[in-house]
Amino acid sequence: MTIALVSILLNIQKVTEYYFYLRKNRQAQILAALQEPLVSSELKSHLRNELDIEYFKSVHGVRLSTPRLNAVFLLNQRLGDSVAFRHVLRAFKNTPDISGIEQCSFRIKVSLFETLMKLYNLIAGALIAAFGFLGFMWSLHTIITGGELSIYMTGILFIPIGAFMFDDGVAFFSVRHINQALEDYEQQRLQVD
Questions:
Q1: What is the CB neighbour count within 10 angstroms for residue 76?
Q2: How far is C-alpha 109 from the chain's CA centre?
């Protein structure tokens, strides 16, 4: 176990560099294909959509299909300044049902299973991160007094795992926040009409 962790830590920079190289290489290949005069206009249209997806992924860290990307832009335009864009991104990291987004009464619908998973990740992530932090602090004390290194490693591992789970669970509140803003938007539209 320790050898695997040390190997991952020593090579993490190479792995991330390779991942980003592949991303940039894909973008360069799409750009080159768009410049090619022999490529059909249908394929160029498809490649423009793919390039939009790749750039969006590079900038925001979320890969979305073309319909979901269009839905994100439409929803962000509809919500304006009432909801930060990061909430929309968090909500769309999941796979919400976007059918009917063109209607004024649209709300983000997330399945019961997804909702339960988000709540679990929120609660368990906070507990795991807190346990990891406490374990890390306790391990510093025990290392000074001649304690075990395994508690130290456990604390270091639990903090990012818990933080990741907590961040994933925060999407539950983002969906609620967006749906409240969409309800306000619908009320405003009904008052105008």
A1: 15
A2: 17
pLDDT bucket at 181, cuts 50 / 70 / 90: very high
Rounded Cα distance between 95 and 109, Å, is 9
Q: Which two tokens stand for residue 107?
A: 């709300």
Kindly tell me if the per-residue pLDDT of 98 is higher than 90: no
Those residues whose C-beta lies under 8 Å from the C-beta of residue 133, and which sit 6 or more positions away, are: 155, 158, 159
Whole-prediction pTM: 0.71
Strands (E), the chain: none
The burial of 100, by beta-carbon neighbours within 10 Å (0-12 exposed, 13-18 middle, 19 or more buried), is given as exposed
pLDDT band at 180; cut points 50, 70, 90: very high
